[in-house]
Amino acid sequence: MTKQEIVKQIARETGVEAATVSAVVEGFMEEVRAAQIRKENVFLRGFGTFLIKHRKEKTARNITKNTTLKIPAHDIPAFKASPEFLRLLK
To answer: Is 55:76 a contact under the CB 8 Å cutoff?
Structure first.
């Protein structure tokens, strides 16, 4: 499902015009993105958590050149579904 499809579906179900729904969806995504950049987790009860996972430095191998390289420590964005959400998927 694309962002445009989500906007159309919400607009259809709520009766709010698509431009307004689109602005709200864009605003939500921008706030989640900004929180993640600030290294803050976003908790949505009953849905899940947008969190930052820290990856330690590690050594990797390039098997085609038979060399090793260091991958520096870094943070990645992640999503963890809530237990209620996971129960619905079963």
So the answer is: yes
- Ramachandran area for residue 48 (φ above 0: left; ψ -120 to 50: alpha; else beta): left
Structure confidence by residue, pLDDT tens digits, 23-37: 999 999 999 999 999
Percentage of the chain modeled with pLDDT above 70:
100
Contact 52, 75 (CB under 8 A): yes
The mean pLDDT of the chain is 95
82 burial via Cβ count (<10 Å: 0-12, 13-18, 19+): middle
Helical (H) or strand (E) element with 68: strand 67-71
Question: For residue 8, which amino acid is it?
Answer: K
pLDDT of residue 90 exceeding 90: no
Alpha-carbon torsion angle 14, 20, 22, 24, nearest 10 = -90
